[in-house]
Amino acid sequence: MPLNKDIQRTLVIGSGPIVIGQAAEFDYAGTQACEVLKEAGITAILVNSNPATIMTDGHMADHVYIEPLTLPTLRRIIEKEKPDSILPTLGGQTGLTLAMQLAKEGFLESHGVKLLGAKPDTIDRAEDRQRFKDTMEEIGEPVIPSVVSETLEGALAFAEKIGYPIIVRPAFTLGGSGGGIAADEAELREIAERGLRMSPIHQILVEQCIAGWKEIEFEVMRDAAGNCITICSMENFDPVGVHTGDSIVIAPAVTLADKEYQMLRSAALKIIDSLGIEGGCNCQFALNPDSFEYAVIEVNPRVSRSSALASKATGYPIAKVAAKIAIGYTLPEIPNAVTGGKTCACFEPALDYVVVKLPKWPFDKFVYAKRTLGTQMKATGEVMAIAPSLEMALMKAIRGAEIGVDTLARAGQLDYHKMDDMRLFAVYQALKDGVSIEEIYQATRIDRFFLSAIGRLASAEKEIAAGPLDEQTYLKMKRLGFTDKALARISGHALPAHRSAVYKMVDTCGAEFRALTPYFYSTYDDVCESRERKTDKPCVVVLGS
Asked: 445: pLDDT confidence band, cut at 50, 70 and 90?
């Protein structure tokens, strides 16, 4: 399918200010969208109230409006600029909600503006809790027992019928804002009233709490011709009950048997197809760890926070591909720049490494804030680490988070029974102290595979502390992610001859094709995959923030 010639002027809605629950990942997606529009010769009109992003630099769009993201502002810009389309799926929840409100009031239709990437009915069926539940039931996908309510009384009646604890999820909010887990009637009254107040359509989903199940996500892509692929599977370290933005996330999903993986992958493809989404989509599932029972938690009919992680984890440019689909291209028509066009966007990425995302919380600044984690996101950002093993990726992520530690050892009183930002370190301490994996699993429901990996790091620390390291033990510890500084400190001895890191590539295809523009991660191996520079030009290193 060629580029849609009807599209000449497109309005891109940004995500607004960086707030708790919505960081800069949506600016990355929106910037990619502006680049695609300009490459295609389409006039890009951007509105975003955030000046602290490259997205609002003058060269990113043809017309940039740094204005409040409100309905009156958007109406005024549309009347002035006369766009023929709006791209609402690359600006987080803000862009999606504003576009939907303009569509519902008839403003877009009266001004000849159409939504790209997702039709109003598609967005409504994914975001409106009742319509989403009805859609899942129509296609035979299981959902958690729940009721959609627009009143406090309806929520209380459902809780009375099904029992506590209860999860509250407001409609059309980001990062679980306004939601939470209620253990009794008093908590439900407080959370439900807040959720109803924060939902732009005054609606909440009240559902049975299945805290303790695994939480699995699939990043999926579909075009207008019906071509669908899964880009990446992701698995939360924490079970259901902690918002995915507040959980450590591992990609690909590493604890699933093939039958479980294929079951959830098929469900994700079925869901995006039934909703008719054209672009990127994120499907979240809850999986009973003791059976093949699963339930669909929610679907984001847009490029989401997880999309940024999946994009970097795989090398697949999700936001760019979603924008190209929105303006009329199909997946087979979009070349993969990483492989120099040897593969296309319809080629599912292959991962031959492990990726760990670690949240970054603002508790060092908000020292009196409640550190408990739940369904409402509290993190303000995250770091990502890539390595051949889960242990090494976890250790890299800890260092990348800049929280003053280079291993999982933390000083102070730690309790792994508490679901807070210190739980990872508390689990590590408990395993070092001899608490069994099974005991910790029963208390936390963190998968035994993850606990075993942390246990190997705890055992390694004891081995390091036992005395001088020979060359073989030194290399073994480097491959687990321990730095030279940490090894010297823990062992109290000088180290053997240092081993230099090598670099492996992220190329989207598991080295099946030659990569022209890959990126790299460090590890300890005999083979280095980074190419030497074949130029006499000066080289510049750019340090990020």
From this structure: very high
